Structures are given as structure tokens and as C-alpha cells.
Amino acid sequence: KQKEFEKTTGKVSSQSKEALRAALAGVLERRMFYIPSFKIYGSVAGFYDYGPPGCAIKQNMTQVWRTHFVLEENMLEVECPAVTPEVVLKASGHVDRFTDFMVTDVATGECFRADHLLEGHLEALLEDKKNPVSPEKAKVIRDLLAGVGELKADTMGAALTEYDVRAPGTGNAISPPFAFNLMFKTSIGPKGDMVGFLRPETAQGIFVNFRDLLYYNGGKLPFAAAQIGNSYRNEISPRAGLLRVREFTQAEIEHFVNGDDKRHPKFALVADLRPLLYSRELQMGEEKKAQPMSLGEAVSRGIIANETLAYFIGRTWLFFCKIGVNPARMRFRQHLQHEMAHYATDCWDGEVETTYGWVECVGLADRSAYDLKAHSAMSKIDLTAFEKFPEPRMEEVVKVVPNNKELGAVFKKDQKAVKEALEALDSNAALDVKAKLESGQAATVSSCDGQTFEIKAGMVEIKKVTEKVTGKTYTPSVIEPSFGIGRIMYCMFEHCYYTREGDETRAVMGFKPVVAPTKATVFPLVQKPALNELAGRISRELTAAGLSNLIDTTGNTIGKRYARTDEIGVPFAVTVDFASVEGDGSVTLRERDSMTQVRVPAGEVAVVIRDLVDDRTSWEAVTGKYPAQKAPADDE
Amino acid sequence: KQKEFEKTTGKVSSQSKEALRAALAGVLERRMFYIPSFKIYGSVAGFYDYGPPGCAIKQNMTQVWRTHFVLEENMLEVECPAVTPEVVLKASGHVDRFTDFMVTDVATGECFRADHLLEGHLEALLEDKKNPVSPEKAKVIRDLLAGVGELKADTMGAALTEYDVRAPGTGNAISPPFAFNLMFKTSIGPKGDMVGFLRPETAQGIFVNFRDLLYYNGGKLPFAAAQIGNSYRNEISPRAGLLRVREFTQAEIEHFVNGDDKRHPKFALVADLRPLLYSRELQMGEEKKAQPMSLGEAVSRGIIANETLAYFIGRTWLFFCKIGVNPARMRFRQHLQHEMAHYATDCWDGEVETTYGWVECVGLADRSAYDLKAHSAMSKIDLTAFEKFPEPRMEEVVKVVPNNKELGAVFKKDQKAVKEALEALDSNAALDVKAKLESGQAATVSSCDGQTFEIKAGMVEIKKVTEKVTGKTYTPSVIEPSFGIGRIMYCMFEHCYYTREGDETRAVMGFKPVVAPTKATVFPLVQKPALNELAGRISRELTAAGLSNLIDTTGNTIGKRYARTDEIGVPFAVTVDFASVEGDGSVTLRERDSMTQVRVPAGEVAVVIRDLVDDRTSWEAVTGKYPAQKAPADDE
Predict the structure, then answer these.
(1) Residue A505 region, left (φ>0) first, then alpha (ψ -120 to 50), else beta?
(2) B543 touching A (Cβ < 8 Å)
(3) For a Cys-Cys bond, which of A208, A286, B260, B541 suits B606, CB 3.0-4.6 Å?
(4) Cis ω on the peptide bond leading into residue A392 (within 30° of 0)?
């Protein structure tokens, strides 16, 4: 199988990539893994329906995710609505900043993503063999291409003008780029006065519940919360199938931790894993290629910022291996400094290699305390945690004691706001104020609603005192692994797809048994009542063991039946023949990828398959235990 | 337990209902089963978050549903987007008719549901002890109350005026009632010209995929498709917690079947079940009380319209029993004739008795071929199935042969439309046309876009011929069981809640093990390293067996720890004591409801609990197999 796999998915030319993608797409659509939604009405771009096998795979993958993360790590799983009032997404920054640049065809009004248009235009210039650009110009273009994602409205507009980019198809002029918010907007309630959006990510539901979750967890940190659910982005131009859609399933984790101590108690369990890491350094270097490195080394050398982030990289890697992504074609790419939000400490994307290039499937980000601080500021609700020291400590602290009488006399009705602003100063800011006042200057403080006040000597006493301190109040940092389930599925499809040796038309979806939509098929060898009856009994036993199965009594040749089930990736096939009902009562059990076969007593076969699916036994162990069945020619 | 249960949930006065509801609500919110969404921003009515135990129960219930229906019945599960283009919901009738009547306070603009307002007002009149209404008036009011759901805008308006209903709180006048569409509206794509809605039900996703699903199923009927997903209704005034919310999870089945033959091959498996049936006859009768009746009898007496509908009623009843709804407090209520849509053949609601009265949790409807016909008419896509007869039959058929030359001469450019209209006539309509033409009259036919044409003799030949017919083309009927997951959860909560004998403050959620969010807790009896270590090992073994578990090393008394876990309904508790590490190596295993305890070898306990959760063994069998541990006083 591995050879076959390499043959179709190893070093391939651009054309064979296209061919592979088309062949796979044929299987996926024909077998209804997923299809465009609302097909009878002509479909709507960016929406897909999962048909029966796709739906089952999605369930199975999600269940593996839940076991691997939520159950094994004792995470707090929550489920929050997709419809979200504006204030939540105002606090998170999505209302103001969750935008892409759009341009329109000035004549037809058709809309395009500005970055896609510019990229396409520049790539075409580089590839133009008839009118090749000069080496100097090529370098300028390549530099511009590398930075397209960072352009602002004005620089993007300038580039589009400079290269005379026009609307595809019509060749018409395009508008200057403008920001288009990607959230679906709606209205909540009957009055029409409450703006709502469909959430663009599930994470915010966790942040707004932080206080209740902390209480639920007995006030203890660190803890992680998780959510699996649908998110919505009104993409300007959806494309590339499941890779860029308007409604998609996310599985997100928010691990809350004290920013001063990001060690992880279970880090040792992943320290020796060696995933491909594509660090900032390697991206800036000559070879531009990810290298395997143990996570322990990556943390100790400061390549990954902390143990907790590295722990999740390791757990993510194990998850991808479990569901059938080829680890040799998966890497973790570190964000370059300019790619990260200003508050982020370190970010790594889990990327999988496909015919579309490297596809970002997971984002792992140390977002510091940004999110909780933003919601706390907007909601005026305290979202801090308290860490009790094992023993109280004597510590030098800065005390701010406002002079109420003086503040009242000067600020009148603003007295309270000024007092609060003074008391909210952190130690360093308070010491700055103290220094200014002592040097005879005035100092300025700001209230939470943005008013500023001038503070003069006598209005406040600021002093260092040594106090018994029992603990520390802080806003937790959050480390966020965020998974795009549809993208992971598509990448897994590409990695699992292969064709039978010697027959390019016989497609096989080599799904891991745990992910496979149907775990087994049951075939009576020929159409006879006794054989059909035993096949029916085995099918019922499989169902009772929780194993999805198909019984095929069509009477087609066994070879033809295998070809059908290969396309939906059924890992095991049970064939009932005359020996099963008249002889020793055994049936043939066949494994999809090796195509090897053993004879198993009919009454044991459901248990054997259950153990194989649950990874309690391996096919090797099964072939060791049961007698081999010499296979007839492949297309028996 | 049953006695306790009766005590709190049997015949209760209105006041004790309120008390039960409040006590349960306290547990549900305190233990974060579910809480109002966006709490730190003051919440938005009709939206709830599931916290960790609620989320786990929802997963478990959904998984039971999937096994019980999708796996055991080999249904085709699909997953479609919530965002839906207008045309789909135009075809289904939701754009035009998915409305509630609303009135507004003329001074404040506040919105109310007209039916709720009228009901509340009439009920208050009936209950008014100070100014009692006359017996005659009371009868008029009761009749009006019974029919509130059927009022149209004008009759509703007249009733509101007649009884001088005013806005609650303010006492202001209210507007006349007007229809308010309950769908959340949005816009798809960047141009703003494509109207979309959030789906009000998941069913439409299945109907629009019928053609592909039929193909997937090899063209064979009957088959069922299923979908679990979120639906959205912008309720005017959400209330009663999980019972009326704006975003909720549905699990819907569409069973497609030939309308001429609604027998079900597995009906015998449910024929002897005796759920409480509340037929039309019983509802119109004196006693107004549901009665147990075998489903076989109900079908043979014509009470339930057909086997397939009755089969799903039986399967639904089994599902409710499996997840812990008390079958004595569940009934199936048949829709009265005037409650049903004109196309429906028969409808039954699965209702569960709670402190809110009987709550509709499931609708089971025989919707005839309405849905597929509606989508076929709108999309112009053929949504029929073909039933091949076992043997071709000689049948008398009506043939319609348009005279093209004559049609062309008379209708010119409309020739094609007229021809299609003639060919689309069914047998009876064609014979009507034939009769008219033969008696010298003209006949009228309509094209699909509503144009009518006058047909005269000579334009068409209509004749009866005997032909060999190989099969029949028909639009399948659909039988739709539709489950509201959140409502079922809430009803289950009420049925599972009880308090420990003699202590009204000790709440227990008596969840079935398969539904319970946490399957087991592990307690070291006292804080000792050896005990903690063994407890940790058992916890890891439980996790490896896929069993969610909690380890509690707080050192609280065992009684206090039980009280905590009772509130989240943990069915099994493992206590590690000195005998476990120094003596015979056994641990105490306690069952929540009976509070009985046995000693089980530490190495076996995970397997025993797995078997209990999966229903492979019972607590009785376990107490028979292992030695009892004499319990210390309950609050040990």
C-alpha cells in the first residue's frame, strides 16, 4: 500500500496533481462523501452537504477528537449558540477587523477578493514565457507576492493600479479595494433593533463563559475548555471545495493558564515525539524546508515558546496520525513575527501537504491574556483568577491611597471615576505617578471609559509597603488549538486515496478502521437461502456490536463487490460460503489494504472486527491467530 | 427510588410543581448543565449554553439516537448547512407561512405573541375568584381558549378587542395582530443580493437531496434519511427555559415510501408494545385520558393510519425508555383533524408530562408526497421514484397524443407549453378532456406556469390502450419523525430528578448510565499516597475504556463527595481503602440509586463499569456475583 501511495502522491508534476485531484473528486462526489448543497436549485458557492459516508466519517473523526482531547485531558466541553449578539463580537474585535479586501468590477458589480486577484496577476506575470519579465522585475514581484497578506487598503490599491489589474473575464476596470466584513449579519428578536451575527469562530463562547467555567472547576487553574460546533464566514469567493467554505465545523480548545508558568505536567509524555517543525529560522533560511525535531529539544532551545504550546503540538500530531494523515506530509509552521497579532506570544499552524499545496488545518496560538482582558473591559465583569500561594509571603507592594477629600473638592462628580482610575494603576504605573508628583510635575490617569484626569501632589499617597500576601490575582493567558474539521477531512481523503496496483481505475479509500464510515461488508458467496441467512445473522451481530455494516446480496462477482466497497473505504469484508454453513462454520475475513484473508469462526467474527476497529488487536495478530485463506485471483 | 420519585413527581399540587421546578433549576444552573448564553453581557432571551455535564448528556443522548435509529435501521445520515437560500424555503412554504401573530404595545413598541396574550387573559378571567364569570360566559371562554391556535388574523384581532386585552405591565393598548415570520434572515455572498435564512428545521436539507439519496440507495425504496443539526426560530417571546428557544438541535428522519404500500417489514418487532395512545377519539371523549394499547391493535383498528407510522411510534417509545423518560408519563397524542396540514394523512405527537404540563418532544407525521412535490414544482427537477413490477403487467392506460400540426397552427409560440400541459394530464383529467371534446365542448388545460389554454376537438387524440407496463413512476410519500433534543433533555431531567429519602436538600439526578455525563467517580478513602496512586491507576483504566470519570482527592467525607456526584448523576462510585492496597486488593463499587455496595477486585472494576454502562450486565447481576460491602450510615 505504501508503494502505491507514494506512486500517486509522492513527487508529482503539476499535471498529475490535477489528475489525482480530479480522480479523487470523482469518487467523493459519486459516492456522496460530500456534494454541493441545494443542487436542485443550482447550488450556492461555499456550501456543502455531507452524504452518508462523509457524515459517518465526520462523526467518527469528531469522536476520536473528543476522546483524544476532551476525555483524555479532562477538558470542560461546552456548546454555545452560533447566533451571537453584536456586543460579544465588538469586544473580540470581529465587528471592526474581521474583514477581507474586496474589489468590484466597475461595470458588472461582480465582487472579487483583492489579494486573490493581485496574486493571480503577479503569478501569471512570473509564468509568462512569451513576455518574460527581467530578473530584477521578477525579484520585485516575488517580494510583493510574499507580502500580499500584509498589505493595507492603500498599498493594496497602489499595487493593483501599478500592475493594472483588471476584472477577470470582462477585463473591466476594478474599484479601489475596500474592507468587507466576513460575518453573516442577522437581527435577533421581533423588534429588529438587536444586531446579531453568526459566530465566525466558536472560541468566543468559551471566553464569555470563563467565569462560570472557572467556578465549575473549583477555582483552579490551569484548565482547558473545548467546543465543537459550526462557524460561519461569508467568504467573498469560496473555492477549493471543502478548503474554503462559508459554513464549517470547528473544534476549538482554550487552555487557560497562569502566564507566569506555562509548564505542562504531562509534557514528558510528548517530549520525545519528532514532528516536522518549520520554525521561523528555517523559513528564513536557505533550504526552506521543515525538519523533524523532538518537542523537548524545541522547547529547551526556545524554538517553541513554552511547554504547554509544545504539548498541544504533540497531541495534535498524534491526533492526525490516529485519523490517517501521513505524518511525513504534515508539518508545524511557526508564524513569522509580522504574521502574528500584536498580543500573541507564539503561533504554529498544523499544515498538511495536498494537491492544493500546504493546507492550514490547525492553528495553535499562545494568545496571552488578550481575549479575557477584552471581554472584561467590554462587559465590566471581573475575569481574573486567584492563585493562592502555598505559604503566605512577605512582599513589597505598592499601595495607592487616594485622598478623597481633595479629589472631591477638585473633581466634583468625577471623584469616583478618578478614585477608581488611581486604584486600577498597576505597580509600575503607580510608581511613575509617584515619581512625577515627587518631582513637582502633574500626572495623568485614564478612567476605563477613556476620560483623562490630571493628578497633582496631595491628591493621592503612593507608597511601597511590605505586606503579607496570600496569593496573586491575574488574568489568565490562553493557549488555543483550533481545528478545522472539514479541511482535515479533505486532507485525510487525499492521503488515504490510492489505486490498486496495475489498475488505475480501481480507487481505494484507505481509511483507518476507526474513521471508516462502514466497518465491514458481509457477502454471501452466491445467492442461496442458507448463505443469506448466515450473512444476515452476522450483519445483526455486527450491528449489535456497534459496527456499521453493509450486506450485499446482489449476486455480483466478489471482485465487483470488493471494488464497490473499496471506494467507500470499508476495511473488512466477511464472505460466507458453503463451508460456513456445511463445513467447519468458518467465514472468510479480508483486510482491504493487504487483501490478505483468514478463516474465522462465524461466531467470532464480530468480536474480531470490533477489536480491530478499536485498535485492541492488529491485522498481523489476526493473521497470526487464524488460518490463512488462499486468495483466488484478485478479481475472483 | 421509585417511591421517592412518586413522592416528588406524582400527583402534585400546582405549588409543589413550582417548588420542584425551582429546586431542579437550582441544580441545573449550579452544576452548569445549561446556563443563559452571553451572561456577562446580560444574556439574550432564548439562547442557552450547555456546560460540561449538559454537553456530555447531549452527546450521549444523540449517540443513543444515532445507534437506535441510524445504525439499527441502516438510515442514510446527511449533514446540510443551516444557512439556506430563499428559494428552498419559498418552495417549502416557510417564507410565506412560518409565522406567529404578534401585537405591539402602541406606546412602548414592545412585542408580544398574540395567542399567549389572549390565552393568559382568558385564563385569568376563568380563575378570577373576586369577579367570577357566569357559567355561560365561562363556557364561551373555554371554547375560545381551546381554539386559540386556529384563529386567523381577523378573528384573533376581534377576540383581543372583545376582551379588551392590553399590554402586560403597562396596560397600554395593543396593535392589531400581524403575522411575524420566525426565520432569522441574512444575506449570502458579498453583493448583498441573495437573501438567505437560517433553516427553521433540518428536514428541507433531506428533501432537496432526495434524488441523490435515491441514487445512492440504488434506486430502491423505501429508505430513510436522517439528520441531526441545529435549527433556528426567532421566537417572539422565548420562555420556559429549554422548551422554547431560538437555536436548538433537531434529529429528524424522513422515511420515503410508496404511498400505496405503507407496510413495514419490521412491524412485528413493535406490534406488541403498549405505549399510552391518546387518539382523536379519546381526546373527543368524556374521560380525556390516554390509554395503553398495543400498536398492532392500533393499526388493525385503523387508529394509527399505517404500519410504518406505527413502527416509528414504537421505536420512538423504546428510545425514550432507553434514555430515562418514565414511560408512564409519556403519551402519543394524535392530531385532531383541524390541527393537521391539508396534505397530512395522520400525525401523532410524542408528549412527556412535566411541571409545564404535557410537552411535545417528537412529532410523527405522515406528510404524504407534499414535500417532494413542492420542491419538484419549484426546481423543475424530477423527484419521483420508479417501482419495477416483479413481472410486467398488461394494463389499460390512457394515452394522450397531441396533434402537433393543429397545435402549432392555433397556438403558435405557445405550442410547446400546450403540448406539455396535455402530456402532463393524469388519467382521470385526460378522460375528462376526452369526454368534453367528444360531447362537442371545449376543454381547458393549464401549463405549469399558470397559463390556461382552450382545447378543441382535433387538437389531441386521447385513447385507452392496453399496454405492457413494467413498473410505475410515483412521487414517494414521506413519514417524518422529528425530535427536539433540548426538550427531550429537559423532560428527562425532570423525570430523573429526586431527593434522598429523609433529606429534601440532597438532590439526585438519576440518569441512566448510558446518558450520565460522568460514568464513575474514584475516591481514595483518605489522603494517603498509596491510595491516591491506586485511585489514579483506576481512573486511567476507566479513561482507557472510554469511560468519563472524576477523581476526587479533596479529602472531604465520603458522604459529602457522594452528595456532589449525586447532583451530576454519576451512577457508579469506586472507593479505594486500605484493604485495596494492603488487603485483598478489592475496592468498593457503589450504585447511585440503590446505594448498595459490592467489593470488586481493583483490576476488574473498569470492565464491570463498562459492561454496566453498555447494558451488557445489570446491577443485580453484579451484586449477585461480588460480595456485598455493608454500607456505613449513608453520610458515612
Answers:
(1) alpha
(2) yes
(3) B541
(4) no
- Could you tell me if A30 and A527 are in contact, meaning their C-beta atoms sit under 8 angstroms apart? no
What confidence category does residue B12 fall into, taking pLDDT thresholds of 50, 70 and 90? Answer: very low
User: Any bridge partners for residue A443, and if so which?
Assistant: A455
Is A83–B209 a contact, with Cβ atoms under 8 angstroms apart? no
The three grid cell numbers given for residue B24, joined into one nine-digit string: 431542579
Residue A337 — pLDDT band, cuts 50, 70, 90?
A: confident
- Cβ-contact A536, A551 below 8 angstroms: yes
Q: What helix, strand, coil percent values describe chain A, rounded to 5?
A: 40, 25, 35
Average of pLDDT values for A344-354?
A: 96
d(CA A154, CA A121): 18
A39/B58 Cβ within 8 A:
no
Q: B588, exposed or middle or buried, with CB in 10 Å at 0-12, 13-18, 19+?
A: buried
Inform me whether the C-beta atom of residue A269 falls under 8 Å from chain B C-beta atoms: no
Who among A184, A190, A543 is closest to B180 (CB)?
A: A190
Count of CB atoms situated within 10 Å of the CB of B3: 9
Beta-strand ranges (E) seen in B194-265 are 194-198, 223-232, 247-257
Q: How many residues does chain A have?
A: 636
Q: Is B67 on the interface with A (CB under 8 A)?
A: yes
Nearest CB neighbour to B543, from listed A72, A76, A191: A72
Planar angle of CA A117, A119, A121, nearest 5 degrees: 70
pLDDT digits (tens, 9 = 90+) for B544-572: 999 999 998 877 888 888 888 999 999 99
Radius of gyration in angstroms for the set of CA atoms belonging to chain A, rounded to a whole number: 30
Low-confidence winner among B49-63, B134-148, B263-277 (lowest mean pLDDT): B134-148
> A520 is written with which cell numbers?
465491514
Q: For chain B, first and last CA: distance in Å?
A: 20
Q: What is the SS3 assignment for B59?
A: helix
**C-alpha cell, A625:** 491467530
CA distances from B119 to B141, B146, B169, B433 (A): 10, 9, 16, 51
pLDDT at site B559: 85
A180 and B198 within 8 Å at the Cβ level: the answer is no
Cα–Cα distance, B359 to B242 (Å, whole number): 11
The cell for A318 is 498524534
Band (A12; pLDDT cuts 50, 70, 90): very low
| Amino acid, single-letter form, for residue A479 | I
Nearest 5 degrees, angle CA A393-CA A399-CA A405?
150
Whole-number Å distance between alpha carbons of A24 and A39: 20
CA distance A434 to B273: 82
Average pLDDT, chain B: 92
Amino acid letter, residue A571: P
CB A305 within 8 A of CB A366: yes
Phi, psi of B17 (to 5 degrees): -60, -45
- Of the two residues B192 and B2, the one the predictor is more confident about is B192
Cβ separation of A543 and B71 shorter than 8 Å? Answer: yes
What is the distance in angstroms between the Cα of B76 and the nearest Cα belonging to chain A?
5
What are the residue ranges of helices labelled H in B412-507? 415-423, 427-438, 485-496
Which residues on A lie below 8 Å from B110 (Cβ)? 191
Domains of chain B and any CATH numbers: 53-90+184-366 (3.30.930.10), 99-181 (3.30.40.230), 393-467 (3.30.720), 518-625 (3.40.50.800)
Q: What DSSP character marks residue A190?
A: T
Is A22 strand, coil or helix?
helix
Dump strand ranges (E) for B53-98: 76-77, 83-85
Q: Rounded to an integer, what distance in angstroms lies between the CA atom of residue A472 and that of residue A568?
A: 56
Please tell me the distance from the alpha carbon of residue B590 to that of residue B608, in angstroms, as a whole number: 12
Positive or negative torsion for Cα B257, B261, B267, B273: positive
Identity of the residue numbered B569: G
